[in-house]
Amino acid sequence: MAPVLDVCIRGAGIVGRTLALLLARDRLRVGLVQSAATGGLADVRAYALNAASRQLLESVRAWPDAAHQTPVTGMEIHGDEGGCVRFEAGSRPALAWIVDVPALEQRLDEALRYQPYVTPIQEPARAALTVVCEGRGSLARAEFGVQYDVQPYGQHAVAARLDGEKPHGHIARQWFQSGEILALLPLGGEAPAEGSHSVALVWSVGQSRSESLLHCDASDFESQLVAASEGALGQLTLASERAAWPLQLARADRWCGPGWALAGDAAHSVHPLAGQGLNLGLADVRELAAVLHGREYWRSVGDVRLLRRYERARKGDTLAMGATTDTLQQLFAQDHAGWSVLRNWGMRGFDASGPIKQWVVRQAAGRL
Fold first, then answer.
1. CA distance 364 to 368
2. What integer pLDDT is reported at residue 364 of this predicted model?
3. CA atoms within 13 A on the CB side of 347
4. What distance in Å separates the CA atoms of residue 193 and residue 130, rounded to the nearest whole number?
């Protein structure tokens, strides 16, 4: 016999599982549709999570242990003509934390194992509210008449794990060069006994170049990385398989309707250059859970007026982040010499801007 549900969550990724845990705290009966099993290579992804996301995951007891979350105490962003912006955590514990995806998923699964209000189900079931958290490849959007506007960047993100010759010093480093964006994110946990040398790579490159980087031999790949990173960490050694996925800017025209809502990448997708993709998704579920928690006693969880409160609260922020990352990507994709001079002049000016720079740090950290 099918369970009687208040909410059916379609998609059991990080966003879907976090939402299930939040709703279960209000004793809502949740059906969590299991994602299709994926086999093959180990997951080499790592997410940069801000303070707001950390607080949310801690509240549902799903924050990874110290070995699998690495504080970022500083950040360096390098342009293609000597421009550079540096950020420091200052009095904050960190600017962000780099979290291993498998470790985070394991903690979410452990939390769900002891949550009686969440029932794993294999197929969508009838409920007062259906929340689509299937990611950007969602098939459920079309069932609700949602248009998903996709703008491909013509780039792929190449990801891998690396060991550097020099310790990373808990600094996240990023280079914008000839339309490509290279990021080296610190790994190794909170406080390694000796400086950690492990980093996560995210390298946004053109599609044909991504194919070359995926299939060239390890020594060639490592040599290209050392050159692109200007030797910041010395010799880099590949420590995992390589993976890649296409990049896009995308947004749904509607986030909700009677009895349904979208959250996470099912509603929006942005370029990873700012590391805000999962932070946006977790902010979605935090807001949706808060709206449902604060509803009038006589409203159903599927009431469209209620769900539009959630849409209004979140749509503006995600549109702004999408526009910001798109503008930066387009700016650094311009190869004319005049653009190079202008953007690197702007980077130097921003680095010396004082209050404006600190405001940006607060926004990125998820704090006002």
1. 9
2. 54
3. 23
4. 47
| Residue among 198, 203, 218, 199 nearest 159 (CA) | 203
What is the CATH class of 5-364?
alpha beta
**pTM score of the predicted model:** 0.87
- Which helix H or strand E contains 230, and what residues bound it? none
Spatial contact of 169 and 177, defined as CB atoms under 8 Å apart: no
Residue 38 has pLDDT above 90, yes or no: no
pLDDT in tens, 264-294: 999 988 877 666 789 999 999 999 999 999 9
Identify the burial level of 202 via C-beta atoms within 10 angstroms of its C-beta, where 0-12 means exposed, 13-18 middle and 19 or more buried: buried
Give the dihedral sign, CA 214/270/351/71.
Answer: negative
Give the position of tokens 């007026």.
305
Here the tokens at position 233 are 């960490």
pLDDT digits (tens, 9 = 90+) for 302-329: 999 999 999 999 988 877 766 666 656 5
Return the structure tokens found at 31: 């059906």
Say if CB 367 and CB 51 are below 8 A apart.
Answer: yes
